Amino acid sequence: MKKDILTYTIPVELQQRVSAEQAYQYRIVPIEEKNNTLVFYSDTPTPDALSQELLIFLGYAVKITQIDTETLNTYLSTNFRKSFDAENQLLTHTQDFLEKVLLTAKAVGSSDIHFEPLADTCRIRFRTDGKLKEQYRIPKEDYPVIINKIKNRASLDVTQSRLPQDGRITVTTATDEFDIRVSTLPSLNGEGIVLRILSKDTSNIQLDQLGFTKEELMIYREGVRNPNGIVLISGPTGSGKTTTLYATLKLLNKIDTKILTIEDPIEYTLEGVMQMQLREDIGLDFETALKTFLRQDPDIIMVGEIRDVKTANMAIRAALTGHLVLSTIHTNSAWGTISRLIDMGVPAHLIASTLNLSVAQRLVRKLCVHCKKEETIKEDTFPINYSYPKSLTKHYTAQGCSHCYHTGYLGRKAMYELLPVTKELSVHIKNNETQIDDYLEKENIKQLSDQAIHLIQMGETSVDDVFALLAN
Fold first, then answer.
1. Taken in order 135, 136, 140, 146, is the CA torsion positive or negative?
2. Is 275 exposed, middle or buried (0-12, 13-18, 19+ CB in 10 A)?
3. Residue 344 CB-half CA count within 13 A
């Protein structure tokens, strides 16, 4: 019988005694510390030689316990995540700890780094593929030094710990350059900090690689190629809206087209596009920026987010005067975006005449193809009162293996719900109709729940990963 993965999990305090690169290079896993000696598992045929080498660069007594290669590989993949770009990995055990954290997070594909003070200790967690995993534990007395280093690099006030602050860090290595957005938050046990990694490289951002089907991509391209109007993308935080917008700007960025953006934050840099950072502290908000943009003779305007009726009305004004406006909004569905604009107080006839396309999207984790397991659907597989297709009798569940870091998932993909504003839909909007299920069914508009079921049928994701979406 397969052992539970917890059997192979070692405490974070032991994990951080060596880097992932050292663990894989030397084929070692720290398993315990006793009598001032660090005990490692290894499959090396020369344990004495390895002990001497580890002693030199670690600086303390080492003991090697030999285990079989298969078991060691399970320990390695469970506790240490390999870099996605191992050849360019620049970390060494002598590097500054903060540099190690930043570069390791970037190397393994994390989107956020969380520095969190607890009652007796402090922890550092990485968000990878949408989920948080504890990466380091640090003593309480060392925490202020690390926090002050971050604040210094982000040009924040080191003496201010009672109010939230926001800043930015640029990290440059021999092979990469990326920005980090810094956000501090006072808490009961001290200041917490979240670092959002913002890649400057847009070479891999292409519309046809985001998850659109062939038909969806054709509909989306048609919506954004109109010379005027509004295209809105909705979804919760972390659903990939900004990435879709940047891929769209790459498609539309031509030598004869002027594009202006107002963003918070600027996550990628696009050559040929004039990008502006939101600065609400000095009065530069989305509405103010849009007013200025209209005097700059742009062809395309990208607004980071429509948060209020003033920004929505300015976006509509820009569309009515012959501009294409791209933006995001927080709603749960493509039709929900239209309802949200009406609830904001935007006149329905203006929405009907300016909105080209409403898009809702989500990011789902992809099941690891190496270890996913087929199972029969049971009564409690799906949410209560959710009617799934009766033809669906099997689904796949996440298991975990060395390929997927024992999470059962490997990467993510976007799924989309596209609602083009046709003449018929315009009439529904002008009439303030809230229920258009018959229209959606007649036009064969695939909703997010339909897309989720399709991915389950194809074995690309699990019921667990889209459970909340199906329950709504």
1. negative
2. middle
3. 22
**Two tokens at 41?**
């598992």
Sheet containing strand 409-420, strands side by side: 274-277, 259-263, 300-303, 324-329, 229-234, 355-367, 409-420
Q: Which residues contact 240 (CB under 8 A, 6 or more apart)?
A: 210, 361, 362, 363, 414
Query: Which among 144, 202, 159, 155 is positioned nearest to 182, based on CA atoms?
Result: 155
Pairing mode of beta strands 324-329, 229-234:
parallel
Per DSSP, which regions of 140-266 are E strands?
Answer: 165-172, 177-187, 190-199, 229-234, 259-263
- Spatial neighbors of 280 by CB under 8 A, at least 6 apart, are none
Q: Answer whether 104's CB lies under 8 Å from 22's CB.
A: no
Structure tokens that stand for 220 in this block: 């989306």
Please name the residue that has the structure tokens 């203006």: 350
Structure tokens, 382:
């799906």
Place of tokens 């800043």: 167
Beta bridge partners of 343: none
Closest CA to 227 of 296, 299, 295, 327: 299
Whether residue 40 contacts residue 65, with contact meaning beta carbons closer than 8 Å, is answered with yes
Using CA atoms, how far residue 159 sits from 27, 110, 471, in Å, is 44, 29, 46
CA-CA distance, 160 to 342, in Å (whole number)? 42
Please report the pLDDT score of residue 4 as a whole number: 53
R_g of the chain, CA atoms, integer Å: 25
List C-alpha distances in Å: 363 to 79, 108, 237.
25, 18, 10
pLDDT for the residue numbered 403: 76
- Confidence at residue 176, expressed as pLDDT on a 0 to 100 scale: 72
Residues of the chain with pLDDT under 50: 1-3, 84-95
Three-class DSSP category at 203: coil
- DSSP state at residue 25: H
The amino acid at residue 426 is S
Distances 225 to 211, 296, 445 between C-alpha atoms, Å: 19, 21, 21
Exposure letters 197-219 (e unless 16+ CB within 10 A, then b)? bbbeebeebebeebbbeeebbeb
User: Which residue type, as a one-letter code, is found at position 370?
Assistant: H
